[in-house]
């Protein structure tokens, strides 16, 4: 390990080289550090063990239990370059050691928020159906064709979860409506009020809104907390966007209720991905499907690379990171793996 | 004609009773005025002639050439309750007489802007195609499925026309991008700069933007000003939303270029509506179609009723109208009928 | 009169050459038109009479009664380059003739709004008094010195008048508070609601706000409508900014009540200007005075020149003006001269 | 110590009971915890020692070196209820132990930002001077009296420091100008760009702006980093607001340069407070003085109480605090005591 430059382990799987280690990134990091890289799988144990003594920054969610942290005396930061946490890090021990543990969730959120807004307008205004009807020669013009259409303007909108996704979505909704309610059990009512949204209980956020965005992360404690009884509270014909994790809803019930026309739905996430070839969900009516496409486009990876480079440089200069998200040890430890 | 109350002629065709004369409107207007109403067609000449002596406000675009204006000494306002002007009014004579001539264009604009934004996200992010692929079992997940997707965030966006539609759309785009260029030959560069948009020549607005919104009204002078040569300036794979009037583009060329994959397109307006049953346009690929659905939903008519009631009351109190749009006599006279 | 260029009469008194006819303006206008200029007083009658036949645009508030308008067949616009109207134009006749009558009120409003905000913070936070106390060695530090200070954040704010001044002020207040009430008898409640302000009756706007901005223009009908009884409704210790015209308040009562400590006040306008040398108002306590300084600084005249040039060019091209304010004939005719 | 309720030590000096322990706070905290309070001085050592075993939250900046942290096994948070850090806590050890160390800096920032904006408008528009001249009968009206006035609209504005104060100030400046430059050596250029401000070197931020806000906190490393040579870069007649800590400038040079008319200044903070009775600074011309009044008004303490209560409740529920500011251990340790 030459030159007194700090050592960075680049172990970003499931992120690929194309996503997070483009030429500009490689060049910028090589100016600052010696790099050890591993792509295509998580770095094998022996590679990780080899670098523990010297590594200052790990990019990727390499398993770092306490016994490894104990042997990584120079480690300053773990940058997972993902939007969620895995349970393979001892978050509390990392905090004890003053190691920054950072996720790229803020980098993925804008793309997801954009997608959610597109889904919401598509559902409320009937965009894909209009195209089908026109192609079938079955269209009606103007208000005659808009019988079931409604608008986001001045609509009551509810968000379940106000983390990175919610915070990226609200600015996109503001030009349409001021009536934004949020349910988030991890945040206080007063905090939500300072964000100019209305704090709301779970039953209220479900029952009182024309648009409902499900943006909650999956934890070890909230699996299917939106069960059939809760989903039954959603008002008739509301537009419901399932954007974060399928695990937080009783998925089969959700699909069934949408199919039956209880509400309109957009679904981008599934309990198992890929969905089985013959899974009957593929035939469900009244749902706008997509295959986990909301966040993962090149623009999001560009944002990850930008935030990662920026914060790595800050950390190597002894300054606090500004752009990636810091792990809250308890909450990160509760996150469900994927 | 009892009671000294002012007389209002309600002749709103093609607006229907359900659109603009709901119970609350009838009740509110009857408190202020005597009403003569005619629905289902333009009011017949003899009905119009009968009321000319007394009428103070006409709601609808009743033909009002100079000879009728001459015989309507108490007329204070013509409120067309539509989004566009017809050539059946002598706009200059109405101005000479201090008669307010008002359109409901500002009431339709929000719904159109919402639709345009939904179309733009749908095109860039591939929303309807994703649903089809999932249903066909042909989906790919995450970035693998997002090969051609791009985002509005930080994108270069161009608007052709900055009337009511453009002014309603810009606030919806602001949370995504500051790079908004506008071409509008009726507005000065300095005015556009005060609106925090970049003034742009026609060739530049066509060639320099990833998203292009065609929002220009049709006049007697601008038919097909976006001809094939102009459309050829649009960058490859841009998303083009045709939202105002089909007449402003060389429609067949536009459809052909989109079909060939030169750009992505959303088309809500057609040279002839309804489109003929067997019109080959219905088979054109790479276009998201809709049947003039952008503006005409109940929410827009609610907005028309609200603005109309508000301004009628202002005018009856001798105050200037605030919410509907005033005709610019020269420009209104150039508007193409529909 | 050479060359077929249009003729512009430049008669801007009381605006001076330095205010509205700087080198760049002269050069820009000379490219478009032949100019006849008169500074230092209103143009003498014979000069005006000489140009009536040909003049297309008058810049300044030259007297234009009907008999002169009748003899000015080519006149397209009168641009008064001031913030208020005088009664020396036949506004209805000008409208009948399709002549644009335009004021520069929107150009003066930002500077006035900035001044009002500065006055409001100065009153609430005690800025000038703090300086005096420090210089006198009489200061107290921190909260001990802030006994009577209060803040604009989350405060209830009332505006009397929502013309150009109010519309320029509201965006400056928004980052502080959403609790903005407006009283304006010329505007409907619904219009004000669309502006995201709360419509308010006069008694309520006076009695319910911690900050009160008096922004109403003076008309022939509203002299001293804020009389002593009305002013008595203002809550104790509120901050009251008198910004538009002294004529709209019972000025002596206003000064007396402020002096007695009923409320804090900032006064920029006076019933007679200049104020007499020995006028006792100069000794009134509890008032922050200024000598009609809110609007008239070079930055405002730069804005007038910019708007004027822009709209003159539009009009000469046959396009509607966009930036200056159009006279509402009835309201303009009611404006009090100054 | 009854009931299994958690123990809170309330030791907020120099905050007083009136500032941070009002009736509503006492009541709310007593519902959640057992309270031990000490006001008027820092809690004596024996009182602190007595509670170490049990204390879960300390409110106030009680000295907490490592040896005390070692003996406080249940301690979850130290909430200093101040805007700055003192060196009497072992910040790194607290972090190692997962103890939240929180300051109330975000609560003081809005009041300071409001004051800064008021000072800036007062300097640029000459508010206090206008009052003096009017009272002396020496006023001139309108533009004649505004010879040296300038405006924030479209002005170039520079901020030195972009912590809580800068982040509270920028939204107040936005309605006036988009030309906001920031110098902050702890933040990356990319981060500042995401905040829609222009990153700027120190020399540039000093030399290129009409308004300059000095908002940097004092650290052990930046004393008087704005020395006479740096201050000489400020453009003639700029408005300079010294708002955070006097220690960051060469104070005597600053006062001298302002007095000589090199620039306009507002000064709220001093190297020694209180300033000595006969200190010649009190006679310095061209400066708007105040006695550390920008932040410390009742509205700020109300905000502190609100944030403190909110985050204490979060922490007692095992959730992360949301509203107060977390210490960055290295940066907090560098903070200069006051």
TrEMBL record, chains A, B, C, D:
Q: Where is the D-isomer specific 2-hydroxyacid dehydrogenase catalytic domain?
A: 41-322
- Which keywords, in A-to-Z order, does the entry hold? NAD, Oxidoreductase
Which chain positions lie within coiled-coil regions? none
What InterPro entries is this protein classified in? D-2-hydroxyacid_DH, D-isomer_2_OHA_DH_cat_dom, D-isomer_DH_NAD-bd, NAD(P)-bd_dom_sf
Give the matching Gene3D superfamilies. NAD(P)-binding Rossmann-like Domain
* Residue ranges of domain D-isomer specific 2-hydroxyacid dehydrogenase NAD-binding in the record: 118-294
A Pfam family this chain is assigned to: 2-Hacid_dh_C
Presence of the UniProt keyword Methyltransferase in the record: no
Q: Which protein family is named in the record?
A: Belongs to the D-isomer specific 2-hydroxyacid dehydrogenase family.
Q: What is this protein called?
A: Hydroxyacid dehydrogenase
Q: Which organism is it from?
A: Hoeflea poritis
Classification of source organism: Bacteria, Pseudomonadati, Pseudomonadota, Alphaproteobacteria, Hyphomicrobiales
